[in-house]
Amino acid sequence: MAPRIHPVILSGGSGERLWPLSRAQRPKQLLSLATERTMLQETAARVAAVPLCAAPMVIANDTHRFLVAEQLQQMGAAARRIVLEPAGRNTAPAAAVAALFLSAEDPEALMALIPSDHVVQDKAAFAAAMEKAHAAALAGALTTFGISPSRPETGYGYIRPGKTLPAIDGAYRVAAFVEKPDLAAAEAYLAAGDHYWNSGIFVFSARRYLEELERQRPDILAACHKALDGASQDRDFLHLDPAAFAACPSESIDYAVMERSEHTVVIPCDMGWSDVGAWNALWEITEKDAAGNAFLGNCMTQDVEGSYLRSEDGRLIAAIGLEDMVVISTEDAVFVAPRDNTMAVRGLVKRLKDAGRQEATRDLSASPRRKGAFS
């Protein structure tokens, strides 16, 4: 019997680009943004629906441990383990810790690295891609999912596919990983149809990943070994050794391994994917009215088009004559920006932090969403 895939759900991000709703104390993966369930819960449900997948491991920030455990418990999703990072060190160390843990129990273990803060609308397409990735991983490939671009996006990395992988229909060798392009290059990729967005979802055998990491970044592997060797168990939580993990270099799996490996494979997958990396991205996946507006909560508008208005605190958002704008009202902040410039919010959050403002990280976003909108 072929080994199952062990999903490793990454829940360590801060989600600053969705401020003021997403804060360090309660980041976007722990919020209900696209559905009634939180993004973490949606991710857990998505992998649970794939027959090839075992119970997931969750890697989270220590600060969020009780929220993560509570949200999984609410939906009846039993995690194989909740591994707690004392500090964020990006995706390559997180994958290393998971691979070390899994390979110690089963040298042939397969794993899938899955961000908890992405939206996947086509669950069947996701499951089909996982089946192909399972076959590729068994063949020794380091596999990622490629998303067909729908716009000339400059905020994503791209993948250029090469030759077809033998015996696996719809899988291709990676010819090149491409850094985030400028607008002209992104437009050329879109027109040519020969590049995919890098989804940040990876499937491979734990052993193959550790072999690649040993060759490319032995310093990361050594630090993760120490962090896991010195870990302590507390009920459902595995606390990584703070000093050892703090000493680990912070690096993404793309830079540390994928871009340097000769065994990378991309599986194109149109699954209604979004990383919900900004308010504009959330507007794109939210149901809209005839004028292209998405209203959530207590809103009343006149002559508003192409905008995203969201009241989280019950206060009325009243707007006239807006076009392509974002307006977010929470208990302690109101955010207003052009919809095509919401990526700049990270700079605003940094200014708030530098000024010592509690609104930068303080958690006042837990109020339930008020339903009902008027226009």
Automatic annotation (TrEMBL):
Q: Do the record's keywords include Isomerase?
A: yes
- Gene3D superfamilies in the cross-refs: Spore Coat Polysaccharide Biosynthesis Protein SpsA, Chain A
Q: Where in this chain does the record put each MannoseP isomerase/GMP-like beta-helix domain?
A: 303-352
What biological-process GO terms show up in the record?
GDP-mannose biosynthetic process; polysaccharide biosynthetic process
Keywords noted in UniProt: GTP-binding, Isomerase, Nucleotide-binding, Nucleotidyltransferase, Transferase
Q: EC number(s)?
A: 2.7.7.13
Cited InterPro entries: GMPP_N (IPR049577), Man1P_GuaTrfase/Man6P_Isoase (IPR006375), ManC/GMP-like_b-helix (IPR054566), Mannose-6P_isomerase_type2 (IPR051161), NTP_transferase_dom (IPR005835), Nucleotide-diphossugar_trans (IPR029044)
Single GO molecular function: GTP binding
- According to its UniProt record, which reaction does this protein catalyse? alpha-D-mannose 1-phosphate + GTP + H(+) = GDP-alpha-D-mannose + diphosphate
Where would I find the Nucleotidyl transferase domain in this sequence? 7-290
What NCBIfam families does the record tag this protein with? GMP_PMI
Listed PANTHER family: MANNOSE-1-PHOSPHATE GUANYLYLTRANSFERASE
**Into which family does the record put it?**
Belongs to the mannose-6-phosphate isomerase type 2 family.
This protein is called what? mannose-1-phosphate guanylyltransferase
